[in-house]
Amino acid sequence: MSRLIVISNRVQAPTENETGGAQGGLAVALNAALAEGEGIWFGWSGDTGEDNSLRFATYGGVTSAVMDLSEQDVDEYYNGYANRTLWPLFHFRLGLTEFERDFAGGYERVNRVFAERIRPHIAEDDLVWVHDYHMIPLGWLLRQQGVTNRIGFFLHIPWPPTRLLVALPDHRRLVESMFAYDVVGFQTEEWLESFCHYVTHEMGGVLGDDDTVTVGGRTIRAIACPIGIETKDFVEMANGPEARAAQMRQLESAVGRSLIVGVDRLDYSKGLPERFAGYERFLQNYPDRQALVYLLQIAPPSRSAVQSYRDIRANLEQMSGRINGAYADTDWVPIRYVNRGYPRATLAGIYRAARIGLVTPLRDGMNLVAKEYVAAQSPHDPGVLILSRFAGAAAQLDQALLVNPYSAEDVSDAIDKALRMPKAERIERWQAMFDNVTAEDVIWWRRRFLDVLTA
Ligand code: GDG
Question: H helices within 340-422, ranges in order?
Fold first, then answer.
């Protein structure tokens, strides 16, 4: 069996302090594959330093290799090109997209350093799997270093429509670099179609049978391969003691009110101000039901070095303060807004306690919170998922109440409908979604991608 080499911006291999149970789906799936075949997971350590040699560590049968980046690298590659150029553009936010030559230069420089450092550790039969927008040109740079192995690339975020992508200086060079891969994977058919549209309209590419795309004599396979969660483990966790305790704690503090829950990294793509506005509309439209619900929004801060992330945080603090000020009573606040992260088992219990999972990103490659919410529900009395039609997950979870996250009315109506939904309908919708989350879990995703890569 070939070894697997995983390369991503951040490494999620087990550490001394944290083993399997606390990890998210991606880490579970890739670590399981790495442990089977003695693979290595490469990436940035998350620290800054001038020495960018690799540091190896092995825990739980998985080897990780991380390197530091200089402050300039972090500014230009991570906070710059990755998170101020590609992230907003690929989430359809042209107005937030910043174009700086230094960012593009830093992005290519850091990818080149990764390629040079990793190259000596790739053995002849290794399969190489590169992840996400931080590392798009890495495969091409590895080829320049003489790597002839099979290399796959998976994009976790949306692929934007051609008319947006052409706003990126050097867009063609970036996409051309993707033809160094053998397989490129996207979360949904929609993102795959957008990629194929670009390749056929901007590069004279030709689509063939069997998911092939050919440009200038080079043929690759481009597939839709939706990521899932570690469903079985998550269901077990939601039934375990830690989750039960969190569920009970939530139910006690709810004193009979229905919990609406949102869990998101604090990111403008997640549509949090729009969600608060939709919830406020519900409070306005249904004054008699106001004190029967509360919204718990968990939003651990992320990327706070980037101004647009500081702006969204300030905006949300202001909005939640204003809404609470306007509607709260002596024994009730409408929004509990929490800026910190919780253990995964605690989240599972909170999901289970919630009558409604409110997942309303403005644009999302997939959205795993929606799948976790479904997995955590009690089969006998499940809650209702309200899901943005602009999340990749909507293609699979079409039994959710699908909403336009920009429309406060749409969100308000969906909350009303969810609260009134009879149990039989809740169970029927939940069962269909649970079947999907079970069948297309993260192990399915990994196998499907690697099967195509090895084919
Ligand atoms: C990218 C794409 C795609 C959140 N708060 C806490 C916590 N989380 C966990 C959730 C979930 C994960 O973080 C977030 O995953 P999402 O999929 O919702 O979103 P992104 O971070 O933007 O991920 C996305 C994903 O990659 C995978 O391909 O689905 O579209 O944008 O697992 O549970 N986890 C813990 N405490 C928290 O407070 N432990």
Answer: 344-353, 368-376, 408-420
Beta bridge partners of 131: 154
Hey, what amino acid is at 264? D
227 within ligand 1 shell (Cβ under 6 A):
yes
Asked whether the whole model's pTM tops 0.85, one would answer: yes
Q: How far does the chain reach from its first CA to its final CA, in angstroms?
A: 14
Q: Token digits for 178?
A: 């993707």
Query: Does residue 344's CB lie within 6 angstroms of at least one atom of ligand 1?
Result: yes
The CA distance from 238 to 381, in Å, is 14
Work out the pLDDT band at 22, boundaries 50, 70, 90. low
The ranges assigned to domains in the chain are 4-228+442-454, 231-439
pLDDT at 18: 61
Topology of the domain comprising 231-439: Rossmann fold (3.40.50)
Any catalytic annotation for residue 156? yes
4-228+442-454 has CATH 3.40.50.300 classification: no
Domains 4-228+442-454 and 231-439 share a fold: yes
Residues 263-280: tens digit of each pLDDT: 999 999 999 999 999 999
List the catalytic residue out of 75, 126, 182, 364. Answer: 364
- Residue 426 banded pLDDT, cuts 50, 70, 90: very high
The answer to whether residues 84 and 106 touch, using CB atoms and an 8 Å cutoff, is: no
* Predicted pLDDT at 160: 98
- CB of 229 within 6 A of ligand 1: the answer is no
Rounded to 5 degrees, φ, ψ at 129 are -125, 110
